[in-house]
Amino acid sequence: MTVQYRAAVLRAIGGNVDIETAVSRKLRSDDVLIKIAAAGLCHTDLEVISGSLKASFPIVLGHEAAGTIAEKGPDVQGLEIGDRVVLHWNPSCGDCFYCNRKRPILCEQYLGNARKSFDFGGLPQSFDTNGQAFHHLMYVGAFAEYCVVPARQAVRIPAGLPAEQACLIGCGVMTGVGAALNIAAIQPGDSVLILGCGAVGLAALQGALLADAAEVIACDLNAERLETAKSLGATYCINAAAEDALNQIRIITSGRGADHVLESAGHPAAFRMTTEAVRPGGEIIWLGKVGVDEDVAFRWGALMQEKKIRRSSYGGARPHLDFPKLAEECLRGTLKLDRIVTRTIPLDQINDGFDDLRHSRGIRTVIKLSD
Description:
Blueprint: E1 4-10, E2 18-24, E3 31-40, H1 43-50, E4 59-60, E5 64-72, E6 84-87, H2 108-114, E7 126-127, E8 133-136, E9 146-150, E10 154-156, H3 163-183, E11 191-195, H4 199-210, E12 215-220, H5 223-231, E13 236-239, H6 245-252, E14 258-263, H7 268-277, E15 278-286, E16 308-311, H8 319-332, E17 341-345, H9 350-358, E18 364-368
Parallel strand pairs: 4-8, 11-12, 11-14, 12-13, 14-15, 15-16, 17-18
Antiparallel strand pairs: 1-2, 1-4, 2-7, 3-5, 3-9, 3-18, 5-6, 6-10, 7-8
Helix pairs in contact: 3-4, 3-8
């Protein structure tokens, strides 16, 4: 069985995303057809539009999504039609050099097939009405009414969490909370600096609180985002546009610097600041990014004194373990994703949503496709 549906398609760098008719492939034995309920707009999608992230065209964007199982292949186990799921974008082979070292984010097949923008096996997931294959961003392609993925990319979550919040678990929340709980070595009583209070940064802030950090310092250029950080439990909020942020961080931390710095601003100045703001022997986790060919300069002295630096792309994600736990934290009220979603829009308004993202309006815009 194939399904016709509407999808947001980018056909060239710098263009608008157009709504086109897509036709799903016939399900393979281990496939599931997902009826997309909600999908978040992420900077990675914007990077494909601008050309700073290489991709193949035409492409269905979107990789942060939640929905329900609409159909499944005969070999699919553990998922039933009607199950609510969050999709993840890091399928892995389980048996390469990196998978054997428990680093699925570096899986050789995952990285090797990523540029093709098809499924994990390198095959198209959908086509236009003339039979031309659509590429799908990050093995998902979620800005559409439906998508086809291998069943291992669909993670069942508890009922009760609104789709516009659940979808964030698939990327931004996993990346931010996971950085605090899976990557950083935050101990009760530690100080944590969050640089950049977008969706990932606010998720990292909440992750630091879940790790029992004593002081969580939020730093951003946007006063409204800092108000949100305060409402989520930040101990201190620093507006880097209005005050000497580094001086304030040192005052708060008795001159030492923060024990842990989690960066999610994605700007050279923010990367440099991480090395100045962390204490000797402290830990830096970079979550943001700049263009892959862009240089970032540091003061050499700021890199000394046993400081540890790590880049994390997906918060050490173990989707089948982490996603349900994150959903439960949301349902308990200890993870507040409703504060991160600042706008929901229909699929037809996707270009307006990207314009908001370009200009840092709001925190996370979510496309709502169904209940």
